[in-house]
Amino acid sequence: MEKSDQHFSENLSITSGNETQSHKSARRKYSDPIPVDLLIDIFSRVPKESIARFRCLSKFWEYKFGRPYFTELFLSKSSTRPRLLFTLYHDGKLFFYSAPQPHNPDKDSSLVATRYHMSSHKNVPCVYCTPVCGLTLLQKILEIRRKMICNPITGKFLTLPRVVLKSKTLPHTEETYIARFYFGYDPISKLYKVLCMTSSLCDGPNTHQVLTLDSGKRFWRRIKFAFDFVEDSRVHGQICIDGVLYFGADMKDTSVIVCFDVRSEKFDFINLDKDMMYESYVSGCLTLINYKGKLGIHERIPNYWHNVKELVLWVMEDAGNHKWSKHTYEVPTSIREKSFVGMTATGDIVWSSYSNSNKCVYFYNLERGTFTSVTIQGFEELYGSVGTFIDYVENLKFM
Asked: Is-above-0.85 flag for pTM?
């Protein structure tokens, strides 16, 4: 626990505004002040809306709630109560909604999603990557001008600096370069980093740059190691597990998973299984997931070709030897009209409905074989595609 500054009291007493002097004397005689450490632990468990109000109580609490220690403590408590996060792009604005994530639901139910924030200005980039430790990278596909880091619960947006390529900035060379951005977090150093990888359409060299999100000046740093790649359209999404960022790429006509260690900024590669490569010829049919702390892949089987109740998962068992295990499940109901979301930390496979007016999230527990649906209410009046994310943890960073 970090120590309080000397001009702040170490302990506090709870008093009532209409206490008489005799009552105050009696309270001082028979009660002890509440230690600040205990209050800090209590406050770390309350909703983020309460934290915003408590910051206004005094300079002391504004100081304490703004310290990195409390931010990390709040994050650790939030990690024990993951939430569902919904994003909706409507009328040029980005809306964030959230609801408690059911823990191993055993029967159908309903939840009301509450709105966090919406973008204060129009035409912000839409969400394109899974939230990482409470923050998310916002970008538009095939557009490299505007990249932002956003905290959904605080509504704060951080615009990233332009990527510099040689002596020019990328926006002036869009027609000759393809840029891809990836977002990761290292739990040891507690640092967020953005990886930018550019490839030339004119057979030029690839470049790799990293930006660290800290309190200092933010700038792109060139990584010495480089390799030629083309993004593999069959592999959908990116995911960060225990400080390693994973995404798909094609190297020399071989499909691989790129492994970027956020802390050391080193690259490694995992080959896809041959059966996976042979069967998965549809764009976006392989989705990266966190399978109980391991890298996993959900294989989307074309509905017109296979059983629409079949669930296929691949799990990385030995990265050094590129060894995958395949798991096939028979889901008790059709998943034809459902969008795959991911796998929760408790072992539930999650889908969501495409409809906004009757939004549902579906949970299939691999161990119990149960399939339940949760109806989500709260944003029926808005039009647009709803993005669904699981295991979201609230973070006070950038508050």
From this structure: no
